[in-house]
């Protein structure tokens, strides 16, 4: 129960951040799209959009280091934590150098005929790419600090930094709308500078706050630990890098066959997906260290229980906004954007459905990493990540529409789910049938019933703000009703109620405290 309360407290911090940052981020996107235009926005998403992938790479690599930090903390071994931090510093410096060399080599080929970029914007695109390379290097060598923050479950700091980041992005967007300099170059440069500043703040904070964060490689370096962490980080990097190639490759393939304007639709869809998924990813950020610590303490039963609940709750948190947005997306986009690029709505709808499939297995992925035997899992995932791009290129060669990319990746999400379940059963003792019945069936039944009821106003109301509000209220009522009666089982309700009451009491006391 203490673990659950800690997760709830940390999730509360992150939700407070999200409440502030979501609307700022969406408004920032509106400003940037209006300032840059669809073509330049598509170029930025194509070239400097890899800065967003840097965040994904850092998150994946931080999870690798965090697994060792949390595992050692679960065992209560402080000396091991110091050693892990120092080995992680060396390891990520090596990875950073290799990634930069790879990016510079890849950049030569990207700008020499692969990317479809107008001649007059080529210089701006190359400048942004170099900003991205610098940000990537600094980001990777800062991964150990992100891992320490997450291992200590310091979500208050994560929340503060998230708010600061959103405000800086808004300031950048306001500057770009008024500057007389090249707007695309200004935006790319300032985004890179922001990334560097935030990472420096993390590093300074960790050195001041945490005892295990002290760099003395000669004293704390361990060849055996380096080999163990290098092996784990190497396989993690294989999985995360192929996922990045797959994600970034979507933009490349769309650019090759359809040009920068379709990439603008692709970029907006990913922005919306990221903001709407914040509810769920926020909770998982607080839960992941607990899963690793439970395994480190030798409590496999608790680890699996937290894994199952994490899958359910993260899926249900997506539904809060997903259902009304899926239904009223055309109206919402016309309110939000001055110009809605072609394919944006269908791209976004298919991407959100794909996210729902993936979300059911995210916590299971974390449990595999917590156990530590990830070689076969990462190889299988890496192989599965590459094929969708090849299939999409083939489909576009025969002139099928751009949205087939999202259909292919939706099918990939199903295949990847099978891979995750197979290795969780093999290494974590997770049982197929109970998980499918208690998580997958319950979650999708809840989604289908909730969506079906929320569609009713479409049959007797015209499009407009009143219908949007009606669907929002109806979806929320059915959300509560179906999740409580179908989504959760009896034992889960008995576990959730005391936690929910405790959480409400804590919030109430903070609000009305004299």
From TrEMBL:
Transmembrane regions listed in the UniProt entry: 12-36, 42-63, 84-111, 123-143, 155-178, 184-201, 313-337, 376-397, 403-424, 439-460, 466-488
Keywords: Cell membrane, Membrane, Transmembrane, Transmembrane helix
Coarse class of the protein's main subcellular location: membrane
Topology versus the membrane: Multi-pass membrane protein
GO CC annotation: plasma membrane
Entry's localization field: Cell membrane
Keyword Nucleotide-binding among record annotations: no
Protein name, UniProt field: Flippase
Organism annotation: Cellulophaga baltica 18
């Amino acid at each position: 129960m203490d673990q659950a309360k800690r997760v709830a407290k940390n999730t509360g911090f992150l939700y407070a951040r999200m409440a502030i940052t979501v609307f700022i981020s969406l408004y920032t996107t509106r400003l940037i799209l209006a300032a840059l235009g669809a073509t330049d926005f598509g170029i930025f998403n194509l070239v400097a959009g890899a800065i967003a992938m840097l965040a994904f790479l850092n998150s994946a690599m931080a999870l690798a280091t965090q697994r060792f930090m949390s595992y050692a903390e679960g065992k209560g071994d402080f000396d091991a934590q110091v050693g892990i931090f120092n080995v992680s510093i060396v390891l990520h410096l090596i990875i950073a150098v290799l990634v930069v060399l790879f990016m510079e080599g890849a950049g030569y080929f990207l700008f020499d005929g692969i990317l479809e970029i107008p001649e007059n914007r080529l210089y701006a695109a190359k400048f942004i790419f170099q900003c991205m390379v610098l940000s990537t290097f600094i980001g990777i060598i800062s991964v150990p600090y992100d891992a320490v923050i997450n291992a200590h479950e310091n979500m208050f700091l994560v929340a503060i930094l998230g708010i600061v980041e959103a405000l800086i992005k808004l300031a950048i967007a306001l500057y770009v709308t008024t500057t007389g300099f090249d707007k695309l170059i200004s935006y790319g440069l300032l985004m890179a500078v922001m990334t560097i500043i935030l990472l420096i703040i993390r590093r300074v904070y960790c050195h001041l706050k945490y005892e295990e964060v002290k760099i003395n490689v000669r004293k704390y370096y361990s060849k055996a630990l380096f080999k163990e962490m290098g092996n784990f980080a190497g396989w993690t990097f294989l999985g995360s890098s192929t996922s990045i190639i797959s994600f970034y490759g979507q933009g490349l393939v769309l650019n090759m066959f359809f040009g920068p304007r379709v990439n603008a639709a692709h970029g907006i869809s990913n922005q919306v997906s990221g903001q709407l998924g914040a509810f769920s990813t926020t909770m998982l950020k607080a839960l992941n260290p607990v899963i690793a610590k439970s395994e480190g303490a030798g409590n496999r039963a608790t680890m699996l229980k937290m894994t199952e609940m994490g899958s359910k709750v993260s899926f249900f948190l997506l539904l809060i906004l997903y259902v009304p947005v899926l239904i009223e997306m055309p109206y919402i986009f016309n309110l939000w954007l001055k110009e809605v690029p072609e394919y944006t709505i269908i791209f976004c709808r298919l991407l959100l459905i794909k996210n729902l499939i993936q979300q059911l297995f995210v916590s299971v992925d974390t449990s595999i990493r917590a156990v530590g035997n990830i070689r076969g899992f990462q190889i299988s995932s890496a192989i599965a990540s590459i094929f969708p791009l090849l299939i999409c290129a083939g489909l576009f060669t025969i002139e099928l529409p751009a949205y087939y990319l999202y259909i292919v990746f939706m099918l990939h999400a199903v295949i990847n789910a099978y891979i995750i379940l197979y290795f969780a059963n093999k290494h974590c003792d997770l049982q197929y049938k109970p998980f499918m019945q208690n998580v997958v069936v319950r979650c999708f039944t809840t989604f289908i019933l909730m969506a079906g009821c929320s569609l009713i106003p479409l049959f007797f109301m015209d499009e407009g703000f009143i219908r949007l509000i009606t669907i929002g209220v109806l979806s929320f009522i059915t959300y509560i009703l179906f999740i409580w009666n179908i989504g959760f089982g009896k034992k889960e309700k008995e576990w959730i109620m005391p936690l929910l009451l405790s959480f409400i009491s804590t919030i109430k006391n903070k609000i009305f405290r004299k």
